[in-house]
Amino acid sequence: MGDIEAVTTILNALGLYTTIGAVFAIVFLAFGLARIDHGAKGAGFVFRLVILPGLIALWPVMLVRWIVGGQPHGG
Amino acid sequence: MAAKQSEFYVGYLAVPPRLKWAIGALVILLLALVAFDAWLVATLQPDAGDGRWADAPTEFRGTLDRTPYPTLRVATDAGTRTYVLVSDEKRGAEAVLGDIPAGASVRVQGYEIERAAVGMIQLAATDVAVDNAPAIPAAPLEVHGRATIDGEIVDSKCWLGVMRPGEGHIHKACASLCIRGGIPPMFVTRTSDGPQVMLLTLFDGRPVPPDAILDVIADPVRLSGIVEKHGDIYHFKVDLSTLARTE
Amino acid sequence: MAATYKPVLWNRHKRVYDVVIGVGIALYLAIFIAVGMSTADSANTSIEILAISALGACAFFMLHVVLAIGPLARLSTTFLPLLYNRRHLGVSLFVVAAAHATFATVWYHGFGVLNPLVSLFVSNPRYDAIGSFPFESLGAVALVILFLMAATSHDFWLNNLSPAVWKTLHMLVYIAYGAVVLHVLLGAASGHGGSPLYVWAVVVGFVIIAGLHLGAAIAQGGRDRAQRSAPKNDWIDAGPADAIPQRRARIVIAPSGAQIAIFRYDGRVSAVSNVCAHQMGPLGEGCIVDGLVTCPWHGWQYDPATGRSPPPYTERVETFNVRIENGRILVDPKPNAKGAPATPAAIG
Predict the structure, then answer these.
(1) Domain boundaries, chain A
(2) Which of C224, C258, C276 is the last residue of a domain?
């Protein structure tokens, strides 16, 4: 059935997006975090865990911010 | 600190005494609402039916039938009993039965499922032992004639007792999966004596292809066909061109 | 406030808040399952299905509480303590909703010949029907929104997405609410064995939430009208200085629409933007604590004369110039830069 194929394709695309997000999140937490947000300097492991799901979901936004070299709001 | 701020709340400072009472009252009110809502919604749950699904497997001996769906004729004190056969999870029994022919005498281990006087066995093991016990004769066939009936197409396994409730549109997706997986479809109709359930077949007695009914499973429908009684189990042999939703 | 991020800035109130959330959830599930198992119709319900229903109903109830807190806090300051830690309630709501969704997906869509996630979207194919629209998809939409909100609940996201984007993202909760209302109406509340009372319960919940939002909007509109000054290019007359209670503020609205909070403290007045740099909370509804303007929402603080958060924090809001003539406060509607000092005016 066409429906099954369409839904499978969308889910596979979502899976790919999430996988890229997971890889990005790890790299970002290791190298990018302190650079784009001074508030994150010295922040601990649990803090990184707290923002991890958001990084995986919103990785394109954070990738752009990393490239542009965003500064923290109000900082 | 903010000792004089009579009612102003700052999360990281001590709560002003008057506000403390207000918050306490608020929390108690909220928990009372929690209790009320939980009670109210719990009393609004749908009728789960009186289906039964045995916790432990038992042994059944009988004569195998393969059409229209796999069934087992078992001799009991009350006469011949027909059990619909299914496999575990959302799968029919065909794969487990392999090429054991209709009419073979078999011994199976299975979990008994029962509702509305219809019995089912969920096969517990993948090996079905064939023996040479004498075959139990097929039950007499009674033709009840043509009928147009309002009801719902369900998957037999869930409806008979595995999912309680196992009908209605909340269960639609599960019923579709079961029927896709080879679980025999049944037709349930409401009567004043409670639900009546019949195995659903094509007009010529063959099994219903899942794709022909997937869209309307669990919806209120009207169907025309012939009602037959095979021993202790009803068959509804339908003309699918008459299938129509009634909602 | 953003010095160095912590996973959670724990304090006693948040702990108490979280204990209340935990007790509330446990109470809800326990009562629901106990009542479900002892009611004649549903006594034979599979325990798994009862648990799925209990989790779903609990999440729906929590969503109402989350949505009610905002307008309640606008209507009465007594409710501000509920607002203070609302994000923990939001994250808990997501966890309960996710548990409901996971169990329902495994139970109804698992163990079959299709991938459970594929089954979730194709097994109920009536996307062209209104009354029988697949309620599963609506639940999935709401869960994605609740996930995005929970995942971005830390102030890190507020800073990195910018407060405006963050606020917009979190406004999606109203889309989620709409989707969940339909999810419940088309799912649990209708069809076989669905009770009309269930539909009414959903309607009552909707009326309460809509009514509270309407009431808060009307109350806010009334306040805004009372505070709006005559449109003049020059300084705004903000009324007599004595009329502002000690350590409190009066909010005036400039012709440009800018909201100005004028605080009275220690025999002086200062004016800052009414909009907190954190989540745009109404600073003018806060008060001066330890010499600092303190936001009523989450307690963020600013020096009234400079608009700056005390070190090590770095937040800034705009200041406004003020003077006092004949006991009346005059405020310049042109804002100074964020964090620019403005000399307080002494009350005669």
Answers:
(1) 3-68
(2) C224
What is the pLDDT averaged over residues C284-307? 91
Q: Compute the distance between CA of residue C102 and CA of residue B169 in angstroms, rounded to an integer.
A: 19
- Can you give the length of chain C in residues? 348
* CA pair distance C101, C147, nearest whole angstrom: 12
Instruction: Give the whole-angstrom CA distance, residue C287 versus residue C293.
Output: 6
ipTM field:
0.93
Q: Which residues of B touch C34 (CB under 8 A)?
A: 42
Separation CA A51–CA A25 (nearest Å): 9
Q: What is the pLDDT of residue A75?
A: 35
**A chain contacts of residue C161, beta-carbon cutoff 8 Å:** 58, 61
The stretches of C76-134 forming alpha helices (DSSP H) are 80-84, 86-104, 116-122
Whether residues C178 and C260 share a domain: the answer is no
Identical fold between B52-130 and B141-245: yes
Question: Which of 2.40.50.140, 3.40.50.620, 3.40.1350.10, 3.40.50.11690 would CATH assign to domain B52-130?
Answer: 2.40.50.140
- C284-288 CB contacts, 8 Å cutoff, 24+ apart: C284/C249, C284/C250, C284/C251, C284/C259, C284/C260, C285/C77, C285/C249, C285/C251, C286/B8, C286/C249, C287/B5, C287/B8, C287/C247, C287/C248, C287/C249, C288/C247, C288/C248, C288/C263
Checking if the pLDDT of A73 tops 50, the result is no
Give the domain-ending residue among C192, C224, C256: C224
Q: How far is C156 from chain A (nearest CA, A)?
A: 8
Query: Is B141-245 a CATH 1.10.3470 domain?
Result: no
Which ranges of C131-195 would DSSP assign to H, the alpha helix?
A: 135-151, 155-161, 163-171, 173-186
Size of interface A-C (CB pairs under 8 A): 86
Q: Domain of C263?
A: 231-346
Residue pair C298/B13 in contact (Cβ under 8 Å)? The answer is no
pLDDT in tens, A5-43: 999 999 999 999 999 999 999 999 988 888 887 777 777
* Cα C210 to Cα C216: distance, rounded to the nearest angstrom: 10
Q: Which of A3, A57, A62 sits opposite C148 (nearest CB)?
A: A57
What token pair was written down for C295? Answer: 């936001």
pLDDT along chain B (247 residues), means of 10: 52 77 92 97 92 95 95 93 96 94 95 96 88 89 95 97 93 95 96 94 96 93 96 96 92
Q: Please judge whether B180 and C113 are an interchain contact, meaning their C-beta atoms are less than 8 angstroms apart.
A: yes
Q: Where are the domains of chain B?
A: 52-130, 141-245
- Name the more confident of C190 and C204: C204
- The beta-carbon neighbor of C45 closest among B13, B45, B169 is B45
Q: Tell me, what's the pLDDT at C177?
A: 98
Single out the residue of B69, B75, B58, B61 nearest to residue B231, CA to CA: B75
CB C61 within 8 A of CB C96: no
In angstroms, rounded to a whole number, what is the distance separating the alpha carbons of residues C256 and B118? Answer: 77
Summarize pLDDT for B175-201 with one digit per residue, the tens.
Answer: 999 999 999 999 999 999 999 999 999
If one counts every other C-beta atom within 10 angstroms of the C-beta of residue C64, the result is 18
Kindly state whether residues C31 and C157 are assigned to the same domain.
yes
